[in-house]
């Protein structure tokens, strides 16, 4: 009977002091904090994946632009070579005309 009375008294004291309630409140507070931390981590992961996706799209776009610029550069080099060839031929013709004019005088 002494043990039962002792357990009963301890239960009454614990209930009276509200230790159970304090523990419940503290436990809920810890659970809420953990949920917030998990939500923050999920949000950070989502933002990171979005940023990575955007960067991948930008890189792909830049690679396409680089390819276009390389093609354009090749085309410009070909056009420049043609212009140089025409200029060289024109200069040869002009020099021949000048030489024939000088010899005819």
Largest sheet: none
Query: Separation of termini?
Result: 147 Å
What's the structural domain tally?
1
Q: How much helix is in the residues?
A: over 70%
Number of helices, counting only DSSP H or I runs of 4 residues or more:
2
Using the alpha-carbon principal axes, give the shape.
rod-shaped
Question: Uncertain spans, ≥5 residues at pLDDT below 50?
Answer: none
Q: What is the β-strand count?
A: 0
Strand content: under 5%
Integer-rounded radius of gyration: 44 Å
The secondary structure category is mainly alpha
Following the backbone from N to C, one meets helices and strands in this order, namely HH
Q: What's the average pLDDT?
A: 86
Descriptive notes:
This protein has one domain. It has helices spanning 2-17, 19-104. It has 2 helices and no strands. It starts with a helix and ends with a helix. It has 105 residues and is an all-alpha fold. The mean pLDDT is 86. The longest helix is centred in the middle third of the chain and has 86 residues, at 19-104. Helix content is 97%, strand content 0%.
Quick tags:
single chain; 105 residues; 97% helix; 0% strand
In short:
97% of the residues lie in helices and 0% in strands. With 105 residues, it is an all-alpha fold.
């Amino acid at each position: 009977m002494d043990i039962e009375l002792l357990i009963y008294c301890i239960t009454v004291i614990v209930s009276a002091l509200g230790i159970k309630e304090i523990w419940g409140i503290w436990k809920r507070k810890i659970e809420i904090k953990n949920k917030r931390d998990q939500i923050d981590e999920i949000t950070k992961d989502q933002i990171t994946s979005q940023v990575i996706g955007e960067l991948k799209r930008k890189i792909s776009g830049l690679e396409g632009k680089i390819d276009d610029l390389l093609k354009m550069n090749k085309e410009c080099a070909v056009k420049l070579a043609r212009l140089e060839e025409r200029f060289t031929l024109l200069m040869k013709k002009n020099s021949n005309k000048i030489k024939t004019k000088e010899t005819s005088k």
